[in-house]
């Protein structure tokens, strides 16, 4: 681990503080005092944050460190690859091949050399994660594995922990905030119309199934995905498309929810209402997932499950054929450089 002296070049300019300057917490975060009183800043300083996943989680960690948070547990077994460059705050040419959590730890210590940062760089299971969540004051579920993040949010609720998850998709995204004082358990997948109470394995399969992925039309309508990319994603050939400003914006909103909760000064957003980003449409709202999309999702899951006379299987095949025709037509329009004309159901029913 490099020290702050190693990480910063010493400037000869007298107007710039040199790397040999001793760190002082109060001086570093003094400007916060225009908003936060000393007691509130101390709550931030003493709070323990657990973050699983360093994609948007890395941005969250850096934001929190610059707000004065000092105690972190960072979890990610993956290393930076070249295609992380467009969105990961810790991805640089000189960090390629390095573990994401270790890179973010070093960046936090460059901000605050006195911070206490523990990393877990091996893949962990939900039981192991549950023990770490128990240690937290705030938990962020940011794993690339959406099923893993969803199940971990249920664990956090069971442990009465404040939990947050930002799920970006292209130029849209949702920030879910789960308060420990909720009177009932919320399954995150249910917020979006997917089946609830699935096991991890069942949910993992459901979310990766190409037919189920076809139904996530909001990636195109709100996320503004190109049809070609959506088709390749549903066939598991590419990851979800993202743009850095949208990811970092949502991560910042997630950080603000943690700050509001810890200092107890302003109301937090609480599920089932969520932060909803639609940056291409110049909108950031607090609202539930669109009702008609939720109802359609629930209907499809129910219809597919009907066993009588094979109705569910037949409807599944019909739906798959219809979706493929719609996507092929939109793909053709995209290839010809035309404006994409969304089918009637996409615009009015889903």
Describe the fold and architecture.
The protein has 350 residues and is an alpha/beta fold. The chain has a domain of 237 residues: Rossmann fold, CATH 3.40.50. Helices cover 44% and strands 13% of the residues. It has 15 helices and 8 strands. It has an 8-stranded mixed sheet with strand order 3-2-1-4-5-6-7-8, sandwiched between helices. Strand 1, helix 4 and strand 2 form a beta-alpha-beta unit. The radius of gyration is 22 Å and the shape is globular. The termini are far apart. The N terminus is likely disordered.
* First-residue to last-residue Cα separation: 50 Å
Largest sheet: 8 strands, mixed
- Assign the CATH architecture of the domain at 17-202 and 240-290: 3-Layer(aba) Sandwich
Instruction: Give the full name of the CATH homologous superfamily of the domain at 17-202 and 240-290.
Output: NAD(P)-binding Rossmann-like Domain
The overall strand count is 8
> What coarse outline follows from CA principal-axis ratios?
globular
Question: Which CATH first-tier class of the domain at 17-202 and 240-290 would you pick?
Answer: Alpha Beta
How big a fraction of the residues is strand? 5-15%
- Give the helix level as a range of percent: 40-55%
Query: Average pLDDT across residues?
Result: 90
Q: Could you name the CATH topology of the domain at 17-202 and 240-290?
A: Rossmann fold
Stretches where pLDDT falls below 50 for ≥5 residues?
1-20
Output the strand order for the largest sheet: 3-2-1-4-5-6-7-8
